[in-house]
Amino acid sequence: QQHGGAVYISGGATPQVLNCEFSNNTTTQFDGGALYINGVTNTIVANCLFNGNTANRYAGAVVIQNTATSQ
After folding, report:
1. Comparing 48 with 62, which gets the higher pLDDT?
2. In this structure, what is the dihedral angle of CA atoms 15, 20, 23, 29, given to the nearest 10 degrees?
3. pLDDT digits (tens, 9 = 90+) for 15-43
4. What is the pLDDT of residue 69?
5. SS3 state of residue 2
6. Higher-pLDDT residue of 49, 68
7. Which of 19, 46, 29, 51 is nearest to 64 (CA)?
8. CA–CA separation, 52 vs 13, rounded Å?
9. Three-state SS string across 5-67, please?
10. 31 CB contacts (<8 Å, ≥6 apart)?
11. How far is CA 45 from the centre of its chain?
């Protein structure tokens, strides 16, 4: 997995990631060991636990980039 070891969301979505747990996920090449969100609007990540996630480059847990609004 290049980005987002558990979840990859890109373009045209309005993601809500709520009340969840991401444990021991990894990305072998780039960023966002658990969650990678790119080019979407109104992103909400709330009440989530991130534990033991790793990335080869940046952000062992979460990358959110090129989004209009994030919470």
Report:
1. 48
2. 0
3. 899 999 999 988 877 778 888 888 888 88
4. 62
5. coil
6. 49
7. 46
8. 27
9. CCEEEECCCCCEEECCEEECCEECCCCCCCEEEECCCCEEEECCEEECCEECCCCCCEEEECC
10. 3, 55, 56, 57, 58, 59, 63
11. 9
